[in-house]
From TrEMBL:
Taxonomy, superkingdom: Bacteria
Gene name, Swiss-Prot/TrEMBL: purD
Gene Ontology biological-process annotations: 'de novo' IMP biosynthetic process; purine nucleobase biosynthetic process
This protein's name: Phosphoribosylamine--glycine ligase
Pathway per the UniProt entry: Purine metabolism; IMP biosynthesis via de novo pathway; N(1)-(5-phospho-D-ribosyl)glycinamide from 5-phospho-alpha-D-ribose 1-diphosphate: step 2/2
UniProt source species: Phaeocystidibacter luteus
Length: 422
């Protein structure tokens, strides 16, 4: 089969890496891809929201499966466009626009969870003509206060504040001053849940599903989970506290009701569901849904997937996932992200990267790199993810960090405590 992966980050590099291992993939295209994906297939200079360009590529290259990496094109309706508008005979792994609302609108997802009795934090949603009601709602709650922009805000739309006055000021900034643009035209105020977070991933054909390896990622820039939120500084899999009993609760109380709920509401959903969960005294609650795989979790989930990934993708597209079994690699996998100095604030680009050829016992997934002539340089905040296997988390992390030691660019930054809380 000919397969197209949409996206350019570490997640898409890891997905492409896994697809390229399958004998069933004849030709792999990545749009736009990055210098890492260039060694696995053919990079095509197309933006993920260039729907017409993507449709033309699918037609021209006889693409059988399109795997959508990032959330933007899903929420914008890439699935609907390729299948309904362009009338292409192609399997799209990524939900239609209706289903993508699970990620595209926090308010939609909270209402969906309420309708289907899925455990989540208590909440209320407010618009800019309801600021006073929002302030009263904040007064009725205990600190810390959780404010979420309703729409997509590139991972920056969630604020957790300890001070009531500050929470009120941020509510006003989000609603009245459009702090996050259209994304915060509505704001969800949520009860704070205290516990430890983890992520579960399902691939579904709309009725059947398989559960992929679970993971735990680390979002904050600073050691000990301090400082500003980032797109993710590292991840580990498996997660020690996610035992069979916890996973049974996740499946029974969250995964099954979600897949059944989408089906009952006539929201056709083919693709990945990312369940951002929190373990509160041994019970799982949903913090958020994503309509695609997480990043950097994908960089540890794909390495732990033993099954042929293309078989699973094809079955999802054909509605036959109930006929598939899924196998995991028993080893631990860890990934540590190296980032540009200054990230997640402003940071320089174009810094020369050296030493990759010296990395051993480690797979490097590119996230924010590009070629300038023959030189690999930084082009984003999160630059590369160093993924390694080990008999346990400790051994895998040692290998990830050993790999990082062999690579250099000006301002290189990383957290040396990934997995510290486990």
């Amino acid at each position: 089969m000919n397969i197209l992966v949409l996206g350019s980050g570490g997640r898409e590099h890891a997905i492409s890496w896994k697809i390229s291992q399958s004998d069933r993939c004849d030709k792999l295209y990545i749009a736009p891809g990055n210098p890492g994906t260039a060694s696995l297939g053919e990079n095509v200079a197309l933006g993920v929201n260039d729907f017409e360009g993507i449709a033309n590529l699918v037609r021209e290259k006889n693409i059988d499966i399109v795997v959508v990496g990032p959330e933007d094109p899903l929420v914008n309706g890439i699935h609907d466009y390729l299948v309904d508008d362009a009338k292409l005979d192609v399997k799209v792994i990524g939900p239609r626009k209706g289903g993508a609302q699970l990620e595209g609108s926090k308010d939609f997802s909270k209402q969906f969870m309420q309708r289907h009795n899925i455990p989540t934090a208590a909440y209320a949603t407010f618009t800019k003509d309801q600021i006073e009601e929002g302030e009263k709602f904040l007064e009725s709650m205990n600190a810390p206060y959780v404010l979420k922009a309703d729409g997509l805000a590139a991972g920056k739309g969630v604020l957790i504040l300890d001070n009531l006055d500050e929470a009120k000021a941020e509510l006003r900034a989000m609603l009245a001053d459009a702090k996050f643009g259209d994304a915060s035209s509505r704001v969800v105020i949520e009860e704070f849940l205290s516990g430890i977070e983890f992520s579960v991933f399902a691939l579904t054909d709309g009725k059947n599903y398989v559960i992929l390896p679970e993971a735990k990622d680390y979002k904050r820039i600073g050691e000990g989970d301090t400082g500003l939120n980032t797109g993710g500084m590292g991840a580990i899999s498996p997660v020690p506290f996610v035992d069979d009993a916890m996973m049974k609760k996740v499946v029974d109380q969250i995964v099954e009701p979600t897949i059944n709920g989408l089906n009952s509401e006539s929201l056709p959903y083919v693709g990945f569901v990312f369940f951002g969960l929190i373990n509160v005294n041994g019970n799982p609650f949903v913090i958020e849904y994503n309509a695609r795989m997480g990043d950097p979790e994908t960089e540890v989930v794909m390495p732990r997937l033993k099954s042929d990934f293309v078989d699973l993708l094809e079955a999802a597209g054909n509605g036959t996932l109930d006929q598939q079994t899924i196998e995991f690699d028993e080893r631990a996998a860890t990934t540590v992200m190296v980032v540009s100095g200054g990230y997640p604030g402003s940071y320089p680009k174009g810094k020369s990267i050296s030493g990759l050829e010296n990395v051993e016992n480690c797979t490097v997934f590119h996230a924010g790199t590009k070629m300038e002539g023959d030189q690999l340089v930084t082009s984003g905040g999160r630059v590369m993810a160093f993924t390694a296997y080990g008999t346990d988390k400790k051994e895998a992390l040692e290998r990830s960090y050993e790999g990082i030691k062999r690579v250099c660019f000006e301002g290189i930054t990383f957290r040396s405590d990934i997995g510290f809380d486990l």
